[in-house]
Amino acid sequence: xxxxxxxxxxxxxxxxxxxxxxxxxxxxxxxxxxxxxxxxxxxxxxxxxxxxxxxxxxxxxxxxxxxxxxxxxxxxxxxxxxxxxxxxxxxxxxxxxxxxxxxxxxxxxxxxxxxxxxxxxxxxxxxxxxxxxxxxxxxxxxxxxxxxxxxxxxxxxxxxxxxxxxxxxxxxxxxxxxxxxxxxxxxxxxxxxxxxxxxxxxxxxxxxxxxxxxxxxxxxxxxxxxxxxxxxxxxxxxxxxxxxxxxxxxxxxxxxxxxxxxxxxxxxxxxxxxxxxxxxxxxxxxxxxxxxxxxxxxxxxxxxxx
Length: 306
Fold this sequence. Notes:
The chain is α+β, with helices and mostly antiparallel strands. The protein has helices at 12-17, 26-34, 36-60, 98-105, 120-134, 138-150, 155-164, 180-190, 200-210, and strands at residues 62-65, 68-71, 75-77, 89-90, 93-94, 116-118, 168-172, 212-213, 216-217, 241-245, 250-255, 258-262, 274-278, 299-303.
């Protein structure tokens, strides 16, 4: 697919904004493109496997309480539990770790051995890794990971690295183009007291005037803009893609029209620790979303060179 370029290629200014640089040879880029169908299909199967494991574990590990049935998620948020798992004390204060948390909730503490830590970016990286390895691109993947780690394992850094090997970086925003300035200003007002802010109006105007979002050059600023409350049709052509919102605060892999979100701070009994939803942030039940009422409303999506 041809990417709609915004009049400039990767610039030294954008490259320098991240720590270090990442480059691939013409042969590496060509090899990547020639194997991209297998890569994205492998990554898609990874997402589906996570979904099946999550649903089966949640269904099969439930207990009865006075308030009803309570079930356990296989995937627990690494920001909430992982760092506490093997440490009882930190800064002189007692910390809960996973087996004790399970016991306190009424579950067998031994279930901790069957559970896995997860995060939004961790899920995206794991499924991408499987795709790269399945196509014999371990060297390229290691190069991507070195760059991502050097930049705080951020989602926008990951998208920058994927762009270097041939992926297209698209700006996404569901607001109607004729009212986008008004919508983005309203969202910014609504998010004034949120922990994570989208800075939607500022980011949109940078995309419009400079062709950049944060440190990323944007290849396409039209195809994922203005879809309002419906899934953008372009996504139906992509078995796997990588999205970010709020300047990379949230990372979400996707498969066709579905957003796949792993949450790093939710409780171990939350069924939504791993959730699939339509890429439709303004629509009922759509994602990406932070909570049931707080949704992410603009950002970047990296699409593979299919």
